[in-house]
Amino acid sequence: MASFDDDLRLAHVLADSVERTALELFGAPDQSVTVAEDGSLTTAAAGRLEELLRHQLQRSRPRDGVEGRILQPTGQSDRRWVLDALDGSANYVRGVPVWATLISLVVEDEPVLGLIAAPSLSRRWWAGHGSGAWTGRTLSSARAVNVSTTSVLEHASGSADDVASWLFGPHGQGFAQLTDRIWRMRAYGDFWSHALAFEGAVDLALGVYMDSYQLSAISALVREAGGRLSDPWGKPVIGPDMTSGIPAIVTNGLLHDAVLSVLSPIEGAQG
Q: Which of 31, 180, 189, 196 has the fewest CB atoms lying closer than 10 Å?
């Protein structure tokens, strides 16, 4: 099995390279914000952070490809860095500290490394293929994490990123039933729902509108933490045919089939 330890160290260097700028711009009143057709926000800060990440990658991995949310893809390598410079933009511009930089390395369409850096929470979560999942402030102050061992749905704690979109979307009835069945459902939102699942603080996390920039990092962490990731019908969400704007379910694995059986619409329905 190939080791990605050097790449993981670089991912931390990348996170370090944008942390100060991200914190300085956090909550600044004069930020320019663009609203896309789907309602998502893009800020000038996100563009600046992606530029810094790309500059560091050009110095450290000039032969690797780079794909980011803001700027055009570069490079043709089988190794591709996927960057979400600012996940949680709405929180960021409002001064809510739940935002992060997501960094992943994809090799031949498989995410082999993922890092989530949330400086306002003083936390990072990271994983490399075969190296386990970890959390901490830095590499030197890390602890290993695993998903929970909860196996009874009624004992489960969950988190969803957008309650209204779940309730009034195609999985509304299932979502209502799921929230009624489990012990508690909260809306920690964005990357944080999934990060809490990696470390076993919650047992399941629901993302209603996910894309490759988020899923590449999340996928690596879910795998190494011992959990399971799929769409609401149990199909993979990672691969060469990955699309944007798809719902994704993260669980501790033990609860996954039970969650899908409650959440999914009428049997046999697709999309």
A: 180
pLDDT at position 267 over 60: no
- Extract the tokens encoding 143: 């602890």
Distance separating the N- and C-terminal Cα atoms of the chain: 36
Determine the Cα angle at 185 with ends 181 and 255, to 5°: 55
Place of tokens 């004992």: 155
Q: Sign of torsion, CA 40 102 160 256?
A: positive
pTM value is 0.92
Helix (H, G, I), strand (E, B) or coil at 45: helix
- List alpha helices for the chain, DSSP H: 5-25, 44-60, 89-94, 163-167, 172-181, 190-198, 212-225, 256-263
Instruction: Give the burial class of 239: count Cβ atoms within 10 A of its Cβ; 0-12 exposed, 13-18 middle, 19 or more buried.
Output: exposed
CA distances from residue 66 to 57, 63, 77, 118, 252 in whole angstroms, order as listed: 8, 10, 9, 21, 31
Reduced DSSP (H G I as helix, E B as strand, rest coil) percent helix, strand, coil of the chain, to 5? 35, 25, 35
Residue with tokens 């309650």: 163
Q: What's the DSSP call for residue 72?
A: P
